[in-house]
Amino acid sequence: MWHWLYIVLAISLSEGILAQNGTCGVQVIKPHQHSSTSRVSRIVGGRESIPHSWPWMVLLRFRTATITCGGSLVRGADGNIVIVTAAHCVDGATDPADWKADVGVHSRASMEPNQKEYGIQEIIPNPGFNFQFLDDDIAILKTAWPIELNDYVQPICMTTENSELKVGQECVVMGWGADVQGGSPVDRLHEVYKPIIADVDCGNALSVFGYNNNSMLCAGNLVQGGVDACSFDSGVPFACKNTNGQWELVGISSWGFGCAQPGYPGVYTEVYTFLQWIHDNTHTSAGGPVVG
Ligand SMILES: *[C@@H]1O[C@H](CO)[C@@H](O)[C@H](O)[C@H]1NC(C)=O
Ligand SMILES: *[C@@H]1O[C@H](CO)[C@@H](O)[C@H](O)[C@H]1NC(C)=O
Prior knowledge:
By secondary structure, this protein is mainly beta. It has helices at 2-17, 199-206, 275-280; strands at 47-48, 57-62, 69-75, 81-85, 99-103, 116-125, 139-143, 157-158, 170-175, 190-197, 216-219, 237-241, 247-255, 266-270. One of its GO terms (biological process) is proteolysis.
């Protein structure tokens, strides 16, 4: 009975909440083919992305900072494009006027032709967010005017299943974060592939730090370490390719014990847990931007 209920709920989630108008998760400019042998140093164990091959990537800036966090463009339930990031990025910083979001960026230092800056109108942190353990580390940012889509700016799809069903799949995290623990953010977008680890192993490695298998997932190499997100990568997407070839937002970079340390895989917000919450907070554009 319980299993039956669970399956029905899962189906209604993927067909109802997740039905999305328009395309998502497909790039015009294709990314590098993932090859597990090419591991040059960056993002920690990754490499520079092909410019604009991850068109849902958002650079978030607080006040005068040149980088604060990253985020992802997704389509809300009303069809408007919103930004999803980590709640800890906006903790104690929820005045929308303090924030700017840049899309179409590859190099942070150069003013690129496809780059565009948006003001923020509304910041919605998940009410369950807890700074001590980083539970429910997800927030929605609505821009002050509608985000224009083009070859360099596209939303990623929402995940349709719990990451437990993807254990072992190599997914990609992208960001401008430090390439070594304690380092500075880099200029150009980098990416690194990491396999999803089973919750039971994440719990064994990380429960002393507050790993919660309901709202988190972990990824990386449990034994070797060497690939990870790092400082200034908070809020960036952890994306997996689905069987249709579209990229889905499965995780949001949340926390880690150091960066790429053996035995301490990186932890991501489990986006699947928050699909209903994202839906509930994007189904009406009342007072918000109108689709143009
Ligand atoms: C799709 O778009 C229509 C109108 O453009 C809107 O009413 C509807 O809520 C949207 N549905 C989803 C799931 O985006
Ligand atoms: C998930 O966490 C709960 C509570 O800590 C624990 O009882 C359960 O065994 C965990 N499940 C897995 C698969 O690790």
